[in-house]
Amino acid sequence: MTTPTPDLSQLRIRRDGPSAGARRGAGGVALWILLGALVVAAGWWAMLRPRALQVQVAVAAASGGAAASGEGISANGYVVARTKASVSAKIPGRMEYLGVREGSEVKRGEIIARLESGDYQAALNAARATVAETEAQLVQARRDVDRARRLRQDQVISDVEVENVTTRLKVLEAQLGAARAQRELAAANLENTRVRAPFDGTVLRKDAEVGEIVSPSSAGGGFTRTAIVTMADLGTLEVEVDVNEAYIAQIHNEQPARIILDAYPDTSFTGTVRQVVPTADRQKATVLVKVSILDRDPRILPEMGAKVIFLRDPKAQPVAAAPRRVTVPSAAVVQGPAGVGGGGAQGGGASRPGGAGARRERRDHERPLRRRERGAAPPERAQGRGTGARGRILKPKGEPWRRSRSSRCERSISGTPRKCRSWTAYRSRSPRATSWR
Higher pLDDT residue, 405 or 51? Predict the structure, then answer.
């Protein structure tokens, strides 16, 4: 069997066609173009896709302050101390002693704390020494004056010498007065380093510790304490409540009341109205009333929540309940074409001032009626379009018109005018005339 001989004449190298590397390069460029187009499309979709409407939530507060019941008018408030003070030092200094803690009972004039007083004590000692020295010189000056007067009677010395010793005596008396004043000043400065209780009461809170710098003013920033302790007289506890101004006419001084603490709802305390503050709060429409607690109880503490029921005469006529007032933030109230309303998450609320509704109303009111015929009379009616259905809008009878000339030119890509047209616009001078383009 004979094997066929291969025909090598058909083997050729095609040098006129594209190479494999060129084909791979063209395919890569096309792939990058496709990826770029996808990225641009994704970006446009992210920018133009509908977004969820963000809604800001605000709190609407209901004000009233009191309610009328069969027993009487009730209001809520807090227990406060009528006599309360933040005790501080008169002079700045470093505290070296603190003799009280929370709950300590102190008497008026008792030392609560003491500042470092070494320099003030030294100044007092120096002032005392000056006073003693001046007193000794004054005693000697008085002896000299007596001696000089006897010698003058014997005609031993002249009048000038007597006058000199007398003047020296008066100068020493004046110096003694100044030295005593300096001693009192040094003693007062030393006393200012001792912080005493201004009244009988109980320490509620410590505001400074030993080693801290205290000052009557906050000149040292956050490292300086302005108060050492906060104390109050628990014998002057009372309840402050806000009463609705609609019921304030039914409350008077010395009116009996019943007090119920939130901490002890099963126990009531007797009270009486001490003062009705002669001013009202315009924001809450309430009046502040202070009620004294007649039943002293150690369980009653400052800043406790309490409910006060103002008792009234059973023969008195019942008071009608006052309407409750609900206030919302001013930012939640918007003005639209239909009036005042609240903006809604679904777009159903009134539009914001200056928004689309207001702009549409303003644009429709200010848009003129146009006629293409030059020199024609102003139209009495015109075909218009607005936010509703199409119709004819009539100009108010007898209202003047304002005439103006306008023109518009369409430009080509190169910027040269290509087509121009002009018209005459008529607009009513009255704000009651509504017209459309």
Answer: 51
Together in a domain, 391 and 293: no
- CATH number reported for the structural domain that contains residue 111 in this entry: 2.40.50.100
- For the chain, helix, strand, coil in percent to 5 are 30, 30, 40
Q: What are phi and psi of 106, to 5 degrees?
A: -125, 155
Count how many Cα atoms sit within 13 Å of the Cα of residue 284 in the half-sphere of its side chain.
13
Decide: helix, strand or coil at residue 184: helix
Q: What pLDDT, in 10s, does the model give residues 89-107?
A: 999 999 999 999 999 999 9
| pLDDT, greater one: 250 or 369 | 250
Are both 341 and 354 inside the same structural domain? yes
Q: How far apart are CA 67 and CA 150, in angstroms?
A: 95
301: domain CATH number is 2.40.30.170
Instruction: Residue 267: give the domain boundaries.
Output: 66-82+236-316
245 with 267: CB under 8 angstroms?
no
Indicate whether 256 and 296 sit together in one domain.
yes
Residue 261 forms part of a structural domain: yes
SS3 427: strand
Q: Are residues 109 and 202 in the same domain?
A: yes
Q: Is position 175 within any domain? A: yes
Task: Give the list of residues 6+ apart from residue 152 with CB closer than 8 angstroms, or none.
Answer: 158, 159, 161, 162
Length of the chain measured in residues: 437
Task: Report the domain count for the chain.
Answer: 5
The C-alpha atoms of residue 376 and residue 414 are separated, in whole angstroms, by 36
Rounded to an integer, what is the distance from CA 64 to the centroid of its chain?
A: 23
Asked whether residue 422 is domain-assigned, the answer is: yes
| More confident site: 190 or 369 | 190
More confident residue, 267 or 23: 267
Judged by DSSP in three states, 248 sits in helix
Residue-level pLDDT at 62: 58
Per-residue HEC secondary structure of 15-59 comes to CCCCCHHHHHHHHHHHHHHHHHHHHHHHHHHHHHCCCCCCCCCCC
pTM of the model: 0.52
- Condensed to tens digits (0 to 9), the pLDDT of residues 314-326 reads 555 555 555 556 6
Is the same domain home to 111 and 202? yes
Same domain, residue pair 107 and 206: yes
Greatest Cα pair distance, the chain, in angstroms, is 187
| Same domain for 104 and 74 | no
Helix runs in 154-271, H state only: 159-192
Please report whether residue 16 resides in a domain: no
**Residue 273 is encoded by which pair of tokens?**
């109205």
Based on the domain organization, do 282 and 148 belong to the same domain?
no
